Amino acid sequence: MANRILPFITLVFFSTLFSMVIGDDGVAISKQYPLVVSTWPFKEAVRAAWRAVDGGHSAVDAVVEGCSACEELRCDGTVGPGGSPDENGETTIDALIMNGVTMEVGAVAAMRFVKDGIRAAKLVMQHTKHTLLVGEKASAFAISMGLPGPSNLSSSDSIRKWSKWKENNCQPNFWKDVVPLDSCGPYHAKASMDVKEGGCSTRNLMGVAEPRSSLVGPHNHDTISMAVIDKVS
Ligand SMILES: *[C@@H]1O[C@H](CO)[C@@H](O)[C@H](O)[C@H]1NC(C)=O
User: Would the N or C end of the chain have less CB density within 10 A of its end CB?
Assistant: First the structure.
Protein backbone atom coordinates (compact mmCIF):
# COMPACT_ATOMS: atom_id res chain seq x y z
CA MET A 1 0.00 0.00 0.00
CA ALA A 2 1.47 3.28 -1.07
CA ASN A 3 -0.49 5.65 1.10
CA ARG A 4 0.10 9.32 0.89
CA ILE A 5 -1.19 10.85 4.08
CA LEU A 6 -1.39 14.57 3.82
CA PRO A 7 -3.05 17.21 5.92
CA PHE A 8 -6.02 19.15 4.80
CA ILE A 9 -7.14 22.04 6.94
CA THR A 10 -10.13 24.27 7.24
CA LEU A 11 -10.83 27.11 9.58
CA VAL A 12 -14.19 28.48 10.30
CA PHE A 13 -14.33 31.62 12.29
CA PHE A 14 -12.13 31.25 15.39
CA SER A 15 -11.95 27.65 14.50
CA THR A 16 -9.98 25.20 12.49
CA LEU A 17 -11.29 22.46 10.37
CA PHE A 18 -8.49 20.03 9.93
CA SER A 19 -8.86 17.54 7.22
CA MET A 20 -6.81 14.84 5.72
CA VAL A 21 -6.86 13.10 2.42
CA ILE A 22 -5.11 9.96 1.51
CA GLY A 23 -4.28 9.97 -2.16
CA ASP A 24 -6.01 7.70 -4.53
CA ASP A 25 -4.08 5.82 -7.12
CA GLY A 26 -7.29 4.42 -8.47
CA VAL A 27 -7.15 0.70 -7.78
CA ALA A 28 -8.70 -1.33 -4.98
CA ILE A 29 -10.79 0.48 -2.41
CA SER A 30 -10.11 -0.68 1.11
CA LYS A 31 -13.13 -1.57 3.18
CA GLN A 32 -11.78 0.81 5.82
CA TYR A 33 -12.45 3.79 3.59
CA PRO A 34 -13.92 6.28 3.20
CA LEU A 35 -13.15 7.70 6.59
CA VAL A 36 -14.34 10.91 8.24
CA VAL A 37 -12.87 12.24 11.48
CA SER A 38 -13.78 15.46 13.24
CA THR A 39 -12.91 17.26 16.44
CA TRP A 40 -15.58 17.30 19.10
CA PRO A 41 -18.96 15.61 18.81
CA PHE A 42 -20.20 17.45 15.72
CA LYS A 43 -22.15 14.45 14.49
CA GLU A 44 -24.20 16.34 11.91
CA ALA A 45 -21.02 17.65 10.32
CA VAL A 46 -19.53 14.16 10.21
CA ARG A 47 -22.75 12.76 8.75
CA ALA A 48 -22.85 15.43 6.04
CA ALA A 49 -19.23 14.71 5.12
CA TRP A 50 -19.92 10.99 5.18
CA ARG A 51 -22.96 11.28 2.90
CA ALA A 52 -20.84 13.20 0.39
CA VAL A 53 -17.81 10.94 0.38
CA ASP A 54 -19.82 7.73 0.57
CA GLY A 55 -21.88 9.00 -2.38
CA GLY A 56 -18.74 9.27 -4.48
CA HIS A 57 -17.70 12.86 -3.91
CA SER A 58 -14.05 13.69 -3.30
CA ALA A 59 -12.57 14.11 0.16
CA VAL A 60 -12.27 17.84 -0.51
CA ASP A 61 -15.97 18.12 -1.32
CA ALA A 62 -16.84 16.00 1.70
CA VAL A 63 -14.91 18.37 3.95
CA VAL A 64 -16.78 21.28 2.39
CA GLU A 65 -20.12 19.59 3.07
CA GLY A 66 -19.13 18.61 6.62
CA CYS A 67 -17.80 22.01 7.57
CA SER A 68 -20.70 23.80 5.88
CA ALA A 69 -23.02 21.80 8.10
CA CYS A 70 -21.19 23.17 11.13
CA GLU A 71 -21.34 26.70 9.74
CA GLU A 72 -25.10 26.35 9.26
CA LEU A 73 -25.61 24.77 12.70
CA ARG A 74 -23.28 27.30 14.35
CA CYS A 75 -21.43 24.46 16.10
CA ASP A 76 -20.50 25.36 19.67
CA GLY A 77 -21.95 28.82 19.07
CA THR A 78 -18.76 29.99 17.37
CA VAL A 79 -18.62 28.50 13.88
CA GLY A 80 -20.23 30.33 11.00
CA PRO A 81 -22.62 33.28 10.74
CA GLY A 82 -24.15 34.51 13.95
CA GLY A 83 -21.22 33.08 15.91
CA SER A 84 -18.77 34.79 18.25
CA PRO A 85 -18.48 38.51 17.55
CA ASP A 86 -15.24 40.49 17.48
CA GLU A 87 -14.51 43.48 19.72
CA ASN A 88 -16.69 45.67 17.55
CA GLY A 89 -19.59 43.25 17.79
CA GLU A 90 -19.20 41.98 14.25
CA THR A 91 -19.06 38.33 13.27
CA THR A 92 -16.54 37.58 10.53
CA ILE A 93 -15.59 34.25 9.05
CA ASP A 94 -12.33 32.30 8.77
CA ALA A 95 -11.90 29.02 6.92
CA LEU A 96 -9.02 27.07 5.46
CA ILE A 97 -8.96 23.97 3.33
CA MET A 98 -6.13 21.87 1.96
CA ASN A 99 -6.18 19.18 -0.66
CA GLY A 100 -3.75 16.63 0.68
CA VAL A 101 -3.23 15.06 -2.74
CA THR A 102 -2.13 18.22 -4.55
CA MET A 103 -1.04 20.20 -1.48
CA GLU A 104 -3.12 23.15 -2.69
CA VAL A 105 -4.46 25.43 0.03
CA GLY A 106 -7.19 28.03 0.07
CA ALA A 107 -8.32 30.21 2.94
CA VAL A 108 -10.34 33.23 3.89
CA ALA A 109 -9.97 35.22 7.09
CA ALA A 110 -11.95 38.00 8.69
CA MET A 111 -14.35 37.69 5.77
CA ARG A 112 -17.29 40.07 6.19
CA PHE A 113 -20.87 39.74 4.96
CA VAL A 114 -20.52 36.24 3.44
CA LYS A 115 -21.63 33.29 5.49
CA ASP A 116 -20.06 30.43 3.52
CA GLY A 117 -16.50 30.28 4.84
CA ILE A 118 -15.44 26.84 3.75
CA ARG A 119 -17.01 27.23 0.30
CA ALA A 120 -15.15 30.52 -0.11
CA ALA A 121 -11.90 28.84 0.98
CA LYS A 122 -12.39 26.15 -1.63
CA LEU A 123 -12.99 28.79 -4.32
CA VAL A 124 -9.74 30.51 -3.32
CA MET A 125 -7.96 27.17 -3.65
CA GLN A 126 -9.55 26.28 -6.98
CA HIS A 127 -9.70 29.58 -8.79
CA THR A 128 -6.82 31.73 -7.59
CA LYS A 129 -3.08 31.44 -7.18
CA HIS A 130 -3.48 32.99 -3.74
CA THR A 131 -3.59 31.06 -0.51
CA LEU A 132 -5.38 33.54 1.72
CA LEU A 133 -7.85 36.32 1.04
CA VAL A 134 -8.98 38.54 3.90
CA GLY A 135 -11.61 41.02 4.94
CA GLU A 136 -13.67 42.76 2.30
CA LYS A 137 -11.38 41.52 -0.46
CA ALA A 138 -12.39 38.00 0.52
CA SER A 139 -16.08 39.02 0.56
CA ALA A 140 -15.87 40.65 -2.88
CA PHE A 141 -14.13 37.58 -4.29
CA ALA A 142 -16.64 35.16 -2.77
CA ILE A 143 -19.63 37.14 -4.02
CA SER A 144 -18.11 37.53 -7.49
CA MET A 145 -17.73 33.74 -7.59
CA GLY A 146 -21.40 33.24 -6.87
CA LEU A 147 -21.67 32.83 -3.11
CA PRO A 148 -24.62 34.61 -1.52
CA GLY A 149 -24.04 38.03 0.01
CA PRO A 150 -23.64 40.63 1.23
CA SER A 151 -25.55 39.43 4.29
CA ASN A 152 -25.72 40.35 7.92
CA LEU A 153 -23.58 37.87 9.87
CA SER A 154 -24.86 39.02 13.25
CA SER A 155 -27.52 37.14 15.16
CA SER A 156 -29.43 37.98 18.29
CA ASP A 157 -27.06 35.55 20.04
CA SER A 158 -23.91 37.27 18.81
CA ILE A 159 -25.30 40.69 19.72
CA ARG A 160 -26.25 39.41 23.19
CA LYS A 161 -22.80 37.84 23.71
CA TRP A 162 -21.14 41.10 22.74
CA SER A 163 -23.34 43.22 25.04
CA LYS A 164 -22.62 40.89 27.96
CA TRP A 165 -18.91 41.06 27.20
CA LYS A 166 -19.00 44.87 27.11
CA GLU A 167 -20.89 44.92 30.41
CA ASN A 168 -18.19 42.67 31.83
CA ASN A 169 -15.53 45.34 31.07
CA CYS A 170 -14.57 43.60 27.82
CA GLN A 171 -13.33 40.53 29.70
CA PRO A 172 -12.02 38.04 28.76
CA ASN A 173 -10.14 39.26 25.71
CA PHE A 174 -7.15 38.41 23.56
CA TRP A 175 -4.88 41.28 24.60
CA LYS A 176 -1.68 40.78 26.56
CA ASP A 177 1.02 43.01 28.01
CA VAL A 178 -1.19 46.05 27.68
CA VAL A 179 -2.85 48.62 29.89
CA PRO A 180 -5.58 48.83 30.97
CA LEU A 181 -5.66 45.20 31.97
CA ASP A 182 -9.17 44.82 33.31
CA SER A 183 -11.32 47.27 31.44
CA CYS A 184 -12.22 48.13 27.87
CA GLY A 185 -9.65 49.76 25.59
CA PRO A 186 -8.15 51.61 23.90
CA TYR A 187 -5.14 49.58 24.98
CA HIS A 188 -1.50 50.60 25.06
CA ALA A 189 1.63 48.52 25.28
CA LYS A 190 2.60 48.16 28.91
CA ALA A 191 5.65 50.27 29.74
CA SER A 192 8.38 47.72 30.04
CA MET A 193 11.62 47.78 32.03
CA ASP A 194 12.98 45.50 29.34
CA VAL A 195 13.35 48.22 26.76
CA LYS A 196 16.98 49.26 26.76
CA GLU A 197 18.60 52.04 24.82
CA GLY A 198 18.55 51.08 21.17
CA GLY A 199 15.31 49.25 21.62
CA CYS A 200 16.80 45.86 22.39
CA SER A 201 15.38 43.80 25.16
CA THR A 202 17.96 41.58 26.72
CA ARG A 203 15.45 40.00 29.02
CA ASN A 204 13.31 38.95 26.09
CA LEU A 205 16.31 37.53 24.30
CA MET A 206 17.33 35.51 27.33
CA GLY A 207 13.90 34.75 28.65
CA VAL A 208 11.67 31.81 28.11
CA ALA A 209 8.43 32.06 26.24
CA GLU A 210 5.32 32.40 28.32
CA PRO A 211 3.99 28.86 28.68
CA ARG A 212 0.70 28.16 27.04
CA SER A 213 -1.87 25.95 28.63
CA SER A 214 -0.94 22.33 28.30
CA LEU A 215 -4.58 21.37 28.48
CA VAL A 216 -6.36 21.08 25.19
CA GLY A 217 -10.11 21.32 25.26
CA PRO A 218 -13.02 22.66 23.26
CA HIS A 219 -12.43 26.17 24.59
CA ASN A 220 -8.75 26.61 23.85
CA HIS A 221 -8.72 24.68 20.63
CA ASP A 222 -9.94 25.35 17.14
CA THR A 223 -13.61 24.52 17.00
CA ILE A 224 -13.88 22.13 14.12
CA SER A 225 -11.10 20.29 12.40
CA MET A 226 -12.13 17.62 9.94
CA ALA A 227 -10.17 14.92 8.16
CA VAL A 228 -11.59 12.93 5.27
CA ILE A 229 -9.99 10.06 3.43
CA ASP A 230 -11.91 9.10 0.32
CA LYS A 231 -10.09 5.97 -0.69
CA VAL A 232 -6.74 4.30 -0.57
CA SER A 233 -5.17 2.17 -3.20
C1 LIG B 1 -27.92 42.52 11.74
O2 LIG B 1 -28.61 41.60 12.56
C3 LIG B 1 -28.61 41.93 13.94
C4 LIG B 1 -29.20 40.76 14.72
O5 LIG B 1 -30.40 40.33 14.18
C6 LIG B 1 -29.35 43.22 14.16
O7 LIG B 1 -29.34 43.57 15.52
C8 LIG B 1 -28.67 44.31 13.33
O9 LIG B 1 -29.41 45.51 13.42
C10 LIG B 1 -28.56 43.90 11.86
N11 LIG B 1 -27.74 44.88 11.16
C12 LIG B 1 -28.16 45.44 10.04
C13 LIG B 1 -27.22 46.44 9.45
O14 LIG B 1 -29.22 45.17 9.51
Answer: N
